[in-house]
Amino acid sequence: MSEQPIVRRRVVKKGISDARTNDSRTQSQYDPYKDAAWGFINHWYPALFTNELEEDQVEGIQICGVPIVLRRAEGKVYALKDQCLHRGVRLSEKPMCFNKDSITCWYHGFTFDLKDGDLTTIVGNPDDKLIGTTGITTYPVHEVNGMIFVFVREDDFSLEDVPPLSDDLPFRFPENSEKFPHPLWPKSPSVLDDNAMILGMHRTGYGDWRIACENGFDNAHILVHKDNTIVHAMEWVLPLGIVPVSDDAITVVEDEKGPKGLMQWLFTDRWKPTLENKELGVKVDGMNSRHYRTSVVLPGVLMVENWPENHVVQYEWYVPITDDTHEYWEVLVKIVKTDEEKRLYQQRYDLVYKPLCLHGFNDCDLYAREAMQNFYSDGTGWDDEQLVSTDVSPITWRKLASRWNRGIAKPGRGVAGSLKDTSLIFKNTADGHRPGYKVRKIEE
Ligand code: FES
Ligand SMILES: [Fe+2]
Question: Which of 81, 110, 128 has most ligand 1 atoms within 8 Å of its beta carbon, as the pocket-test mutant?
Fold first, then answer.
């Protein structure tokens, strides 16, 4: 009997592979990140666009489980905790303001100073001994080029320690031009620049903010955009994926001052675009190159340079509302100096960028993120995921975010979303109101 050659079958391991890049040793370096379901607190976040808050307008939002009321008075925006210290209703649900200096709770009349949140009087009880002894937390505001940013702080985070907004925004150019040179495009405008015109939108995403954030700079996920209208209309060469081929594919930035984040050296020899998968017979279409570069900084701000066209930059924020909802901000920034440049940029935004990029292209990101939510929502996804070499980007981000965040938000107390199955959520949903970002005003 002749000896039969031994047939070696590939052993298919069921369960977690040792070859994954996020083994338990790696995971232990980002434990704080895994605890940040409600976001990173003590950071700057976008709250509203300027045109969403006119003089005397009052709006309520929620960031990192913190209810916040915004009011514009004499042109200036104030932000305070939107939870009355008496019995906890949201001031923004039924705005009541008797002057330009204060906001009054519509329920029993507790009145708070806009500047420092102090309880200055109670409408029907002006001699109560509580007056002058307590107050609600205020939040620093920075309004610039059509956006209102709020520093969302813990009640005991000192106002003296509040860093400048620029510490929580992407790397600026030309300051960083030498550090991050790129031959393919000139500097990328910042939201802080003179003549920066910001156009964009925000909407609620139904998923964990971290899942959304990681999607923004995930170099494997561009497959989801393969057949987007803009890609075919412009005949872009959009790779099937981009794979790191060098140890310095990513630069981590953790200078003492300034933003903390990472920059990916895309479209250099440190990353290799995948243009074909022979096994599947899949190839990229397109003729026109579309070079871009992504970076991300705390508390979760994406910059896509040179996107969707030359001289435009896209910024995204994934502002945690609760542990399973976030406000997805997408803005495009361009430097425009003349009225004619403004008009043309606005027209390009209305006719191309908004429908085909911020919707169209980015709608795919939104549904992909929501599709991941069940896997991560009970926390087990962070342990069960099996990441590959391309996922060096989220792993690097998780580690640096764990090292440099200014605080992990505690689960919201007494706010929307702190309990998931209340009769109010079911009633509102049945009435056609999805859980979201802005407070709905009481209708009488
Ligand atoms: S709940 Fe605000 S005054 Fe009573
Ligand atoms: Fe995407």
Answer: 110
- Characterise 142 by phi-psi region: left (phi > 0), alpha (psi -120 to 50), beta (else): beta
Closest protein CA for atom 4 of ligand 1: 108
Say if residues 218 and 335 touch (Cβ distance below 8 Å).
no
Residue 294: φ, ψ to 5°: -115, 145
Q: pLDDT tens digits for 190-211?
A: 999 999 999 999 999 999 999 9
Average pLDDT rounded to a whole number, residues 299-305: 98
Q: Which bound ligand lies closest to the C-alpha atom of 364?
A: 2
pLDDT category of residue 286 using cuts at 50, 70 and 90: confident
Domains of the chain: 44-142+411-430 (2.20.25.10), 150-377+385-404 (3.90.380.10)
pTM: 0.95
Q: Closest Cα to residue 245, out of 268, 222, 212?
A: 268
Q: What is the pLDDT of residue 1?
A: 47
Please give the mean pLDDT across all residues of the chain: 95
Instruction: Give, using CA atoms, the residue closest to atom 1 of ligand 1.
Output: 87
Question: Are residues 271 and 219 in contact, defined by beta-carbon separation less than 8 angstroms?
Answer: yes
Cα–Cα distances in angstroms (integers) from residue 242 to residues 181, 271, 302, in the given order? 20, 6, 18
Which residues, including other chains, have CB under 8 Å from residue 304's CB and lie 6 or more apart? 216, 292, 293, 294, 313, 314, 315, 316
| Ligand 1 mutation target, pool 80, 89, 111, most atoms within 8 A of CB | 89
pLDDT digits (tens, 9 = 90+) for 69-78: 999 999 999 9
